[in-house]
Amino acid sequence: MSLINPGFGLVIWMTIAFLVVLFVLKKYAWKPIMNALKEREDSIEEALRAADRTKEEMKDMKLDNEKLLREAKDERDAILREARKVKDKIIEEAKAQAGIEASNIVESAKERIENEKKAALTEIKNTIAVYSIEISEKILREELKDKKKQESYIQKLLKETSLN
Amino acid sequence: MSDKSAVIKRLLFLGLLLLFVFFIPSSFFGQHEEEVHLMTGKEHQEVEEEEFKAGEMIIEHITDAYEWHLITVGDHHYSIYLPVILYDEGEWHVFMSSKFHHGHDTYMGYFISKNDMNSGKIVKLDGNGNEIRPTLDISFTKNVLAILMVMILMIVVFISIAKSYEKRKDHAPKGLQSFMEPLILFIRDDVAKASIGEKRYERYVPFLLTIFFFILFNNLLGIVPFFPGGANITGNIGVTGVLAVFVFIITTVSGNKNYWTHIINAPGVPWWLKLPIPLMPIVEIMGLFTKPFVLMVRLFANISAGHIIILGFISLIFIFGKMSLGLGYGVSVVSVGFSIFMNFLELLVAFIQAYVFTLLSALYFGMATEEAHH
């Protein structure tokens, strides 16, 4: 059958045509297409890798930020704690100081009051003594106005004295 | 998973196709012997010869020709006449195929045979009245013209794509480029890289891409029934043979030590299969040749079968039209319906066969370059 009887001329033409197509396309089509595809794939891959890297960096940065924040918080807490301690200490000291001061003041006040009291008592004693002397003088003067009475009193005194 | 389903689908369609090839056309082949006469003389120029032979018509349509018949209007055939180039008895004869007047005339003793084996080819009569072929017939035939057109089409298409790749570097593909890119990537990644291996596939990519698109373009143009298409190139055993020979040459040339060792002295095979009768080597060496042979026959048979079926359906219209005009119109509805279905199937087959040929070539290259891994 002619269907399975290849024409020799066609085989030759086909061989030539196919070789021409193969070499022309290989040089002017497949090579640039393959290169372009490869280049594009490489650039896409590069971009993806870069994105991954950036993501990783972002993650690191976020971690760093969190760490910083935590540190800052800790530091703030420490400072606050310290401050509170200092405040308490100051208040404590102030209280103690105030107590001492107060007791000092009370002490000195007591001393002064004592002194004043003593001074007042002394004065009162002196005044009382002065008044007593004056009163005794007046009483003696009244008693010893007449000579007879004076004599009798002296006699009495002498009598008492001579007994000793 | 998806590989497996693709293989199953392919097998399914091949099976379906085989079914058509073996069962349906047999009824058409039978008919041309009965010399069915057609009532209307539209198909033939001669008034006295009003017959329609479906088998002859089909063979005429799917084989090569010395002229490209475009259309017949009334009694007049419009054809592109192509140059006939013969070398016979030490002499070159170059003339236009119009000299044969559509195969009715004899020119310088040469005429177009109607004999079975050489039918459609230029022959002459020897002393005993037998038809013999000229020594060399390198005529620029219909298929050669079609190959030339596909060749130009491919060069134009792919060089323009290459240009747009250079122009739009690192950008998304556009237009024709984005239509072809998936196919190119498919051949590169799923055919070449998968079958040959990451390290060596690059050498074979240009060849694989060229045969894939060559077969695909020809298959698709073969489905188109009028001028730029219509030539049955990939359904011509000479053309598929040349492609298969290229595959064979590349496989043989790139075969490494491991490949030849497996053929001559396959490791892991019992010695008595090699000595004293070298059974295994003989089988392996036969395998070297059967592989490209199968490539040749598969493509040729698939494409030709599709064309034969469609032409068969169309022939049915004229066969029944001869019996009764009404029957002819009635059958035409069914025939056209089936032809449309077949055309869709052929569209699918066009892709599948281009893919299968390329994939198997890639597998053979892969086998030839595989490194030993024992």
Protein described:
- The complex is a heterodimer of chains A (164) and B (374).
- Chain A has helices at residues 8-143, 147-163.
- Chain A is mainly α and 164 residues long.
- Chain A has one domain (2-158).
- Chain B folds into two domains: 67-140, no CATH class; 142-369, no CATH class.
- In chain B, the strands form three sheets. In chain B, strands 4-3-8 form a three-stranded antiparallel sheet, with no helix packed on it.
- Chain B contains nine helices and eight strands.
- By secondary structure, chain B is mainly alpha-helical.
- In chain B, a hairpin with a 2-residue loop joins strand 1 and strand 2 (76-81).
- The chains are: A mainly alpha (164), B mainly alpha (374).
Can you give me a brief rundown of this structure?
The complex is a heterodimer of chains A (164) and B (374). In chain A, 93% of the residues lie in helices and 0% in strands.
Record keyword descriptors for this entry:
heterodimer; A: about 160 residues; mainly alpha; 2 helices; about 95% helix; about 0% strand; rod-shaped; B: about 375 residues; 2 domains; three-stranded antiparallel β-sheet; 9 helices; 8 strands; globular
The number of helical segments of chain A is: 2
- Individual helix count of chain B: 9
Kindly provide the radius of gyration of chain A, computed on alpha-carbon positions and rounded to a whole number of angstroms: 66 Å
Mean model confidence by pLDDT of chain B: 82
Tally of strands of chain B: 8
Q: How many domains in all of chain B? A: 2
Strand content of chain A: under 5%
What is the radius of gyration of chain B computed over CA atoms, rounded to a whole number of angstroms? 24 Å
Describe the main β-sheet of chain B briefly. Answer: 3 strands, antiparallel
Helix-strand pattern of chain B:
HHEEEEEEEEHHHHHHH
Largest sheet of chain A: none
Our estimate of the beta-strand percent of chain B is: 5-15%
Average residue pLDDT of chain A: 90
The helix/strand series of chain A, from N terminus to C terminus, equals: HH
Q: Uncertain segments of chain A of ≥5 residues (pLDDT<50)?
A: none
- Separation of the first and last Cα atoms of chain A: 197 Å
In total, the number of strands of chain A is 0
Identify the most extensive interface between protein chains: A-B, 35 and 52 residues
Number of domains of chain A: 1
